[in-house]
From TrEMBL:
The keyword rRNA-binding does not apply. It comes from Pelotomaculum thermopropionicum (strain DSM 13744 / JCM 10971 / SI). This is histidine kinase. Coiled coil: none annotated. The chain crosses the membrane at residues 7-30, 164-185. Residues 186-240 form the HAMP domain. Residues 255-470 form the Histidine kinase domain.
């Protein structure tokens, strides 16, 4: 069953129930009013008849003669009057009764004997009569019953017409409103149909750049269209990121294979050389062993870097604690001076940082600093200078590694933090091309940023901003 049909049935059902309840209320209200009007009429006539009725004879003799007024005086041909003594014998009746009598039961006589009047509905042939039974009193004693009856035929005819009117009117109204509800439901659901068609076309065509066109009000359907468009945008971004990730993975595997193949080839060649040569040339053997050791160390560094990046890809969460900046930078400066070799290495005055701390992993922060220092040393020619500086800037610390080396070409700047990326002029250097990628990951894991400013032939400045730990 379609949603449109469900809504139509639901609307029609609620309307039918409402009309049924309303019709019953109208019908019973009308029936009650007609009955109440008949009761008031016969009760009023009964009082007038009592005042005008004459009983001939002395009580307790039976009601031998009762003179009642002519009912026509009340201009109501549907009203009948009858007087019955205590034994149930009709003592008098109105002329319009003819040869008929108003039905009287033993139960009625017993109730009247109690001295109270009451109403009842009785059947006389095929007619329904509303009867008011009023006791006739003489000297405080009940001597008979005065019955004033009114035929309910006109009222029943009116109720019958009302039933027909309610039924036919309700049926017509239900049909018209159901038809209107069907049309309105179709109009309301038409935008959803278009949304479904568009979504199906997107699914079949696998075109995530397509969006649902909706220009209506910002109602439930409008919000649905907006939500679906946002979902499609996220799916498009996720799919694009997945494609980029797959391409990066393929490139990563290719570059890693290439980086590992070179030292393995060197080691294999030297091992074969040692097998052929034996101990014939000790000097050549030592050179081969040194080459093997160097390539093993290079492979060890490469594998270690790959492990760090694999942990980064697996969303590794660093174990962070308070790390004092001044001792960390002093230790990095000491190690940097060893790495500098023939270069001039200098460090700023870190005492100005005082007891400033960052929340992070001490070992990874040291690795970050050494990667940047080693990178500066590697691409600075002999006689050049590398400097490490740090200063507090508001709620963060700014750490800079400055060199006057070969610099970075402007076209290479956007790519230097990519894995295995190396500029053309340094492509044959000893680096693996993973250091800066690891450095950026460490910085981001500590909630910081890293930027680089460089001019080819004049040097580079890597600046790291880390948030200070708030005490």
């Amino acid at each position: 069953m379609s949603l449109r049909l469900k809504l139509t049935f639901l609307y029609s059902g609620v309307l039918a129930l409402t009309m049924l309840v309303f019709g019953l209320l109208v019908y019973f209200f009308m029936e009650h009013n007609l009955t109440a009007e008949a009761d008031r009429s016969v009760a009023g006539i009964a009082e007038d008849v009592v005042r005008s009725t004459v009983i001939v004879g002395r009580f307790p003799a039976p009601l031998r003669q009762v003179v009642i007024p002519d009912v026509d005086v009340f201009a109501n041909p549907n009203t009948y009057i009858q007087v019955v003594d205590r034994s149930g014998v009709v003592a008098a009746r109105s002329d319009n009764l003819g040869g008929q009598v108003i039905p009287l039961s033993e139960e009625t006589l017993r109730e009247v004997a109690k001295g109270k009047g009451f109403y009842e509905t009785v059947m006389s042939g095929s007619q329904s009569l509303r009867v008011y039974n009023r006791p006739l009193l003489v000297d405080g004693q009940v001597v008979g019953v005065l019955q004033v009856a009114r035929t309910m035929g006109p009222a029943e005819m009116a109720l019958k017409r009302l039933r027909i009117l309610l039924f036919l009117g309700g049926a017509v109204a239900l049909f018209l409103t159901s038809t209107l509800g069907w049309l309105l439901a179709g109009a309301a659901l038409r935008p959803i149909g278009r949304i479904t068609e568009t979504a199906s076309a997107i699914q079949q065509g696998r075109d995530l750049t397509r969006r649902i066109s909706y220009s209506g009000p910002k109602d439930e359907v409008g919000r649905l269209a907006g939500t679906l468009n946002q979902m499609l945008e996220r799916l498009h971004d996720a799919y694009r990121n997945l494609e980029d990730a797959e391409a990066a993975q393929r490139r990563f595997v290719s570059d890693a294979s290439h980086e590992l193949r070179t030292p393995l080839t060197t080691i294999k060649g030297n091992v074969e050389l040692l097998k052929k040569m034996g101990d014939a040339d000790p000097e050549t053997r030592n050179e081969a062993l040194n080459d093997i050791a160097g390539e093993v160390e290079r492979m060890s560094r490469l594998v270690s870097d790959l492990l760090v990046l694999a942990r980064a890809d697996a969303s590794l969460k660093l174990k962070k604690e308070a790390v004092a900046l001044a001792p960390l930078l002093a230790e990095a400066a000491r190690r940097g001076s060893v790495l500098a070799g023939g270069l001039t290495f200098s460090a700023g005055d870190f005492s100005a940082l005082g007891e400033a701390e960052v929340l992070g992993d001490k070992d990874y922060l040291m690795q970050l600093l050494l990667i940047l220092i080693e990178n500066a040393v590697r691409y600075t020619p002999p006689g050049g200078e590398v400097r490490l500086e740090a200063q507090a800037e508001g709620d963060c610390v700014e750490i800079s590694i400055i060199d006057n080396g070969i610099g970075i070409a402007e076209k290479d700047l956007p790519h230097i933090f990519e894995r295995f990326y190396r500029a053309d002029k340094v492509r044959f250097s000893s680096g693996s091309g993973l250091g800066l990628a690891i450095a950026r990951w460490i910085v981001e894991e500590h909630g910081g940023t890293i930027i680089v400013k460089s001019k080819e032939g004049e040097g580079s400045t890597f600046t790291v901003h880390l948030p200070l730990r708030i005490l």
